């Protein structure tokens, strides 16, 4: 038997094993620094998220306060303060108008009016007070035929009708396309 033929592969294997072990040890030190760097980045992101969440809460509080002030100034024109003038409405719009007929809002037809009535929105005032999100959710519950509508201008149109601003309403509706700007 030839001893060098057995001894050489054993020595090469032993040297490769030692080198592999040493290289692995050196790379694990780099992994520790990489892990520390990633942990520092994660901590910075968490701190930034915390700051952003605090800012969001602050902005939401400011918005709620401003909305409250706006609603208080709007409340000065409570539903009982304004009298509906059907002749003035008819002369401005060119057709006979019934009080609280939601169909005069560009984009609202009989079926959408029925959806809103079922949801408790039966007057121009109530429609003017509804948020676009609420109106869209009512439309979404009606099915996909209703969900495609865009109610973004409807509250403002309803407010104009409620306040008796028929000329402004007519002019604005002439510039709208299916109730959309």
Describe the fold and architecture:
The chain has 181 residues and is mostly helical. Helix content is 71%, strand content 0%. It is built from 8 helices and no strands. The mean pLDDT is 85.
Distance between the termini: 96 Å
Largest sheet: none
Residue stretches low in confidence (pLDDT < 50, at least 5 long) are none
Overall outline: elongated
Q: Given the helix and strand composition, which structural class is it?
A: mainly alpha
By DSSP (H or I, 4+ residues per run), the number of helices equals 8
What's the β-strand tally?
A: 0
Residues in β-strands, percent: under 5%
Average pLDDT rating: 85
**Domain tally:** 2
Helix-strand sequence: HHHHHHHH
Work out the helicity level: over 70%
What value does the Rg take, in angstroms? 35 Å
Which descriptors would you attach to this protein?
elongated, mainly alpha, about 180 residues
Layout: helices, strands, pairs:
Elements: H1 3-74, H2 86-93, H3 110-118, H4 124-129, H5 132-141, H6 144-147, H7 154-163, H8 166-175
Helix pairs in contact: 7-8
Short description:
By secondary structure, the protein is mainly alpha-helical.
């Amino acid at each position: 038997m030839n001893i060098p033929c057995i001894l050489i592969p054993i020595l090469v294997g032993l040297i490769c094993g030692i080198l592999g072990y040493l290289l692995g040890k050196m790379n694990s030190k780099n992994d520790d620094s990489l892990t520390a760097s990633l942990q520092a980045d994660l901590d910075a992101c968490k701190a930034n998220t915390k700051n952003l969440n605090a800012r969001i809460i602050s902005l939401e509080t400011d918005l709620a306060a401003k909305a409250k002030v706006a609603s208080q100034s709007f409340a000065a024109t409570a539903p009982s303060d304004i009298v509906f003038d059907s002749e003035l409405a008819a002369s401005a719009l060119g057709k006979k108008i019934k009080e609280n007929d939601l169909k005069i809002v560009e984009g609202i037809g009989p079926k959408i009016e029925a959806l809103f009535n079922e949801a408790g929105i039966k007057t121009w005032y109530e429609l003017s007070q509804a948020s676009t999100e609420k109106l869209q959710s009512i439309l979404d519950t009606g099915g996909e035929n209703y969900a495609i509508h865009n109610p973004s201008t409807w509250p403002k149109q309803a407010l104009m009708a409620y306040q008796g601003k028929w000329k402004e309403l007519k002019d604005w509706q002439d510039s709208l396309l299916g109730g959309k700007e």
